Structures are given as structure tokens and as C-alpha cells.
Amino acid sequence: MGDATLGEFISIHREELLYRCRAKGLASSEPQPTASNVARGIPRFLDDVVGELTVGPSKKREMDASATAHGADLFFDGLTVGQVVHAYGGVCQSVTDLAVEMGASISSDDFRTLNRCLDDAIAHAVVEFGRQQRVAGLSDSGFELNNLRNLIDTALSGFEALKTGTVALGGTTGALVHRSLLALRDAMSIRTA
């Protein structure tokens, strides 16, 4: 990568990164995301990351909004909350793999920015995914069971993201896992009371 920044690296290799992200997502997804979702969610995230790396934190609001929209899109595509997390995890893996293959180095500041963006995007997408589940109008017993399942899925998916080391335990995803576990504990104590 030489003197190029991560933002420049992503811009230069955008199509290859998108190809790799799609391959990772499609290989592990059942059900499959729709073509329109594949064309919008992760490409927009990569563009947002480039903006964050080149323009700075002033792009955070747009990034949060696009991650929220992506979470809703994935819900309406019938995907699971785990697939939401894995879609973003595929971005980090793709960027890292391509950089290693090309002998490119990523500065620690740029890598921290990428991880912060991933952490925030995962959290916003997962929260919106859960909100869409609640809005879907499930029956009370179905809603309660679905809510418990969603809390477990959110905590597990967040934990999976934390295990990869691409997001920090003290970041947004760590806080999401913590809130999910607390809500699960509270929901279980209400059920047994």
C-alpha cells in the first residue's frame, strides 16, 4: 500500500472487496439476501468508511443511518440477526485478507477507525433489525418467544463479532451484548415470577 491510506486502499480495490464480501455472505447465508440488498448495504458501508477515513467523524450520522436502513433491509429479506453481524464481519475479513495478500500495511489509526465503524454499524443494524421484529406485530405469546429468541441471537451474534477481535469489548457491540443479556435476564425473571 506504500503511502496510501486505508481509505485510498478501499477506494482502489472497492470492487474486489465487494466481490469478496458477497462471496463470504452468500456462502454462509440461508436464506440468501436479495440482489437489491447486496447492491446497497455493504457497498454503502464501504463508501461510508472511506468518507470517515478521509473526511472524518462528520460522516457518523450518515453511517449510522445507512447501517440502520441495512438492518431493516436484512429483516425484510428474511435474514437472521446473525447474518446481519456476519455481513459486517465479512467486510473486515475481506479488507484484512486483501491487504495481507497485497503486502499492504494498514496504519493502527486507520484500523481503529475501521473497527469503530464496524462496531457502530453492527450495533445500529442489529438494533433496527430487532425493532423491525417488534413492529412486525407478532401475537403476545409469539412476540414474547420471538423477543427472547432475538435477545439470545443478538447476544450470540455480538459475542461472535467480539470473538473475531475486529470490534472492541468496550465498544458499541460490547454494550449491545451487555444490554441484551440484561434484558434476557430481566425477561426470564418476569416469566418465573
Model description:
The protein is an all-alpha fold. The protein is built from 8 helices and no strands. Helix 6 (108-135) packs antiparallel against helix 7. 36% of the residues are buried.
* Morphology: globular
Structural class of the secondary structure composition?
A: mainly alpha
Q: Number of helical runs? A: 8
CATH superfamily of the domain at 6-138: Histidine kinase N-terminal domain
Instruction: Name the average pLDDT.
Output: 78
Main sheet, how many strands, which sense, barrel?
none
According to CATH, the fold-level topology of the domain at 6-138 is: Globin-like
CATH architecture of the domain at 6-138: Orthogonal Bundle
**What is the subunit organization of this protein?**
single chain
H/E element sequence? HHHHHHHH
Beta-strand content estimate: under 5%
How many strands appear in the DSSP assignment? 0
CATH class of the domain at 6-138: Mainly Alpha
Helix content class: over 70%
User: How far is it from the N-terminal to the C-terminal residue, by CA?
Assistant: 59 Å
* Poorly predicted sequence stretches spanning 5 or more consecutive residues: none
Q: Give me the Rg, rounded.
A: 17 Å
